[in-house]
Amino acid sequence: QASRVGEPLQYEVLDVLEFSSARRRMSIVVRNSQTRAISLLSKGADTVMLPLLASGQEELVAQTEAHMHDHSNDGLRTLVIASKELSEEEYLSWSERYRRAASDLDEVEKKSREEPNAIDDQCDAMESRMRLLGSTALEDKLQEGVLACIADLVKAGIATWMLTGDKEETAINIAYACELLDSTTTVVVVGLKTHPNVEDITRALREATAAAEESMELSASAQRGRRALVIDGGALGLLFGAAPDAPACQLEFLRFTQTCATVVACRCAPAQKAKLVRLVRRNVRGVSALAIGDGANDVAMIQTAHVGVGISGKEGMLAVNAADFAIAQFRFLREMLLVQGRHNYRRIAVTVYYVFYKNIMFTLVIFWAQFFAAFSGTKWNLEAGNQLYNVLLTMFPILWFSVFDKDVSDETSLALPQLYHLGPGNHFYFNWRATLRWIFQAIYESLAIALLCVFSLDGLSPDGESPGLYLIGACTITLAIVVPNLKLILWFFSWNIWSFVLIGFEVVLWWGVGGVVASEIKPENRGTSGEFIAQFVLGWYKLWGNVNELGTFWLLMLLVPAVVLLPQVFYSFYMRRFHPQFRDLAMECEYHGLPIDALKAWQIPAGQRQRRLVKGAPRPLYQASRFQRLCASLCGSKAKSESARSTATRA
Questions:
Q1: Inter-residue contact 190 to 230 (CB < 8 Å)
Q2: How far apart (Å, rounded) are the C-alpha atoms in residues 611 and 600?
Q3: What is the pLDDT of residues 263-295, one digit of tens each?
Q4: Can you tell me the distance from the alpha carbon of 79 to that of 138, in angstroms, rounded to the nearest whole number?
Q5: CA 406 to CA 397: how far, in whole Å?
């Protein structure tokens, strides 16, 4: 229902031509209930709608474009509305063809894959030679906190791209409002009007890349060489097209975007958003793509990225249902990434390294024993200790660390977004160098524990004899439990009473386990259950008491942790004193209550923002995985064998 000058009007909806990323418009066929006249009403972006208008409307089109330009400069979102009058015969003829195509399952499947199909062809046939009605302009207000959130994400070193369906002027105004662009930014605009073919786009991007690289060489400041790219949907259509020069254009696009602080894609179709994300994912080394959106147009982009975030709001729940995470407002992304994300990334990285480290170290201690046991396979460790090592004796401190440890407070993390660059962007916490360092420490500590115990206990048993294999094993397994628990103190940033209580609890717990197993099973009192338990306490009957009577054992408890951990203490002190990271400076300011204004002004160097392209870039956007290629190969081989078998049977 509608009204015109107070007069109510009623329309019957005959057909709805749904929006798609290929058509980028939506139409409706209605019948006036009073006059029985049939009309088509269509709305869409100006770049799509204006070419579909009938001739003879040049003056109206020019006026409408001028109005849309003014509205876009004011930051309003614009659409073009057009109509078309249909006769009964014309509509019935088209409706029959349209319903025939819509009921064809093959065409429906093609449409779902966004391939050329008869359904869209019939929609295009209807949406032609239309009459321009005008344009709409509405203000799409940003949510509270969006500007501050995006500004902090840029400061954190996160490459922020804005992919939108808005007009170019609207997109640029929003980018300025969000501080993605500022007065110092050199903006390169690539559009279909100014660059009508692939060669022109490639040439423009190549020249922009050369100018950016020259500027970065002459400028020592990361901010002064700031650049941005604005590209429209028409240019993206050529970029992802089937032209022979399209791969070269994609390569120049990737090279230039590596020098850009941000990229703004306007009049962008949903499929083009997904292609941009896939292009970056497949061709930029070490990149992690996060896509955030609130509408159905963002679903393809959200599903293509590594991580998708959907905003629940007035645009529906399609984006939320397709995303990995859902938030109520955009500003929540700030704390999600800069606080929780940063803390969890650092804690998980250390936790992964620590779990592998302590198991490598513990296993190597057992391995070095074979050099003193003629490689007979005999273990010198308590079997019960082997079984309880991960699940009980070294579990609680790392569990506490992985949940509660913080290097700086949440307030400081929000005040200094630059702290984020040490995480996923710079891979400071999780990289090959850190992996090799942890492995080297595990090898060194296991060697120190095994060799110091073997050569220090020789001839020092209570009866003056050489110590047995299990006595040495009692010392080595004790140190293999004490050292990893003490080592975790070096990685705790938030020391508190619970950190030391849990570490002390693990050490005391091992002393209790050793005392219980050393006196539990006597050789002469083994029953059916005793035989089963005895295999876990083999060689430990009354052993723990003898070990605790050795002065050398207690000396080793002091000497070995000092030998293996003090070098790491000195290394950490040296790095923080002479080569501090931004995080170390933030921690000192927070601990001593110093102002952080100077840290807020610090900018991440341009070299740490850039990422190298993969070898052979640009790679195809859609390529089967190894598993898919293997399955296709196996299915092809099977089909060939069946074909050969049937041919032989017929022969």
A1: yes
A2: 24
A3: 999 988 888 999 999 999 999 988 889 999 988
A4: 9
A5: 14
